[in-house]
Amino acid sequence: MKIKVDAEKLIAKYLLGDLTDPEKEQLDNWIKNSPQHEEFFNHLCTNMSFRKRYEAYTQINSHQAWKRFKKNIAKYQSHQFF
């Protein structure tokens, strides 16, 4: 029985430094399986802009951001003269 590799999840964990040893082995096998996989993986890893944006994205607390947004809207609306 062949286990399907969730490459996107493994790459994300790799970029964040959260891969376990078995996951690292799965990712390595996925990369070796295809030249396109290797090219895609290398592109993501060498594109520091992507990596930094991904790391920033994973740090977002959407609940807190929504509360801050609603607070700012309420403050703005309280200054309206209509």
Comma- or semicolon-separated keywords:
82 residues, mainly alpha, 77% helix, elongated
How would the blueprint of this fold be written?
Layout: H1 7-16, H2 21-33, H3 35-46, H4 48-58, H5 62-78
Helix pairs in contact: 1-2, 2-3
Q: What can you tell me about this protein's structure?
A:
The chain is an all-alpha fold. Helices cover 77% and strands 0% of the residues. The protein has 5 helices and no strands. Helix 1 crosses helix 2 and helix 2 (21-33) packs across helix 3.
Largest sheet: none
Structural class: mainly alpha
Could you state the order of secondary-structure elements as H and E?
HHHHH
Number of helices: 5
What's the quick description here?
By secondary structure, the protein is mostly helical. Helices cover about 75% and strands about 0% of the residues.
